[in-house]
Amino acid sequence: MKLDSTISAVITGGASGLGEATARALAEDGVKVAIFDLNEEKGEAVAKELGGVFCNVNVTDEASVDAGFAKARAAIGQERILVNCAGTGNAIKTASRNKETGAIDHFPLDKFNLIIQINLVGTFRCIAKSAAGMMSLDPLEGGERGAMVNTASVAAEDGQIGQAAYSASKGGVVGMTLPIARDLSREGIRVNTILPGIFNTPLLAGAPEKVKQALGAQVPFPPRLGEPAEYAALAKTMITNGYFNGEDVRLDGAIRMAPR
After folding, report:
1. Cα–Cα distance, 36 to 54 (Å, whole number)
2. Which residues are the signal sequence here (predicted)?
3. Could you write out the DSSP letters of every residue in 5-57?
4. Structure confidence by residue, pLDDT tens digits, 41-62
5. What is the pLDDT of residues 133-154, one digit of tens each?
6. How far apart are CA 107 and CA 161, in angstroms?
7. CB 200 within 8 A of CB 219
8. Fewest C-beta atoms under 10 Å: which of 25, 52, 158, 194?
């Protein structure tokens, strides 16, 4: 797919981090962008700067997602690109023992389900609704109608202690990539997924510099945190390379996460 002003894109989680970097990278090539996010102040500012549109969207709420796509399509047209970056995580053991009292507790299922709803179901919800819209478009050269990029995590394969919910949600994103790509293949819609390692995103914004350096030192090469622009570069490659389809690609400096 050639990126220019005739192409529209929806980026979930586009107000910051990996999503913001991707929105900026696409806009640099003239792509019209719609940012789906809950952070209205930041999302509005980024959308205004890029000449796009902000949509206050909660990916766990179907009506909210429907309203977001309706607003985006009215403003910039039917998207040919969807990049799913909306997500979150928590750190809770499956079951644990209080070292002081000896009391035993287990992972609260509502907190487990919340991560699944945001990271996995929310991603699929946006994929399904975007795909239905893309199918209404005329195909481009080569029969292509659209391209999607999802965000998983190396935790899908190297989940650490306390990451059961997060790993399950991201593993689900990896697991559904190929069947969705196959589902949409006859419609000319490609689907790929990136598994980022340790990236310098807002999740680490409040961490002391020494902590960031220690995390970066765990990466074989280069021994540093990944930068959102590097994620965006891979996302653009997945979008522009027409033979890139049904793949799950680690972007992690060769790190393999230790148990903790």
Report:
1. 6
2. none
3. TT-EEEEETTTSHHHHHHHHHHHHTT-EEEEEES-HHHHHHHHHHHT-EEEE-
4. 999 999 999 999 999 999 999 9
5. 999 999 999 999 999 999 999 9
6. 12
7. no
8. 158
Q: Is residue 180 a contact partner of residue 237, using CB atoms and an 8 Å limit?
A: no
Q: Which is nearest to 196 in space by CA: 168, 219, 164, 165?
A: 219
Which residues does 166 contact at the CB level (< 8 Å), separation at least 6? 89, 90, 91, 115, 119, 153, 155, 159
pLDDT in tens, 63-107: 999 999 999 999 999 999 999 999 999 999 999 999 899 999 999
For the 8-251 domain, the top CATH level (class) is alpha beta
Count the alpha carbons within 13 Å of 98 in the hemisphere toward its beta carbon: 6
Tokens of residue 28, six digits? 């640099």
- Comparing CA positions, the residue from 175, 170, 164 lying closest to residue 84 is 170
- Alpha-carbon distance of 197 to 251, in angstroms, equals 6
How far lies 140's CA from each of 10, 135, 194, in Å? 18, 12, 24
Instruction: Let me know if 231 is a catalytic residue.
Output: no
Query: What angle do helix axes 122-134 and 164-184 make, rounded to 10 degrees?
Result: 20
52: tokens are 């796009």
Which residue is catalytic, options 166, 172, 177, 195? 166
